[in-house]
Amino acid sequence: MAANDTISDMLTRIRNANLARHQTTEVPATKMTRSIAKVLQEEGFIVEFSEKEEGVKKDLVIALKYKGKNRQPIINALKRISKPGLRVYANRKELPRVLGGIGIAIISTSSGIMTDRDARKQGLGGEVLCYIW
User: What is the stated purpose of this protein (predicted)?
Assistant: First the structure.
């Protein structure tokens, strides 16, 4: 399936796999999806991710993280902010705080993909890709 918005596609696949309590999910591998998966791993929302190659097609296999005996998902919600039809940018002073700092906003800056916290530390603004909590 060809998706124009690979970030929305990635977030939807993670959301659906989380709701179905799947151990892993596969998303098409792009530079952007790799960067987002790296941030999610650093922030403790996923266990790990690896790359699977089948001929020309490359996928990222993302291992989801759960807590407790009931296997409650670590990721409660994912929300896409900047879309292809309406880009949302924030300068360093306007960077959003998700649920008062409990969640994270993933920002695309000139120094790469990072959390809102890291962008604030480095004094960078950029495109607000999504919120995760």
Answer: One of the primary rRNA binding proteins, it binds directly to 16S rRNA central domain where it helps coordinate assembly of the platform of the 30S subunit.
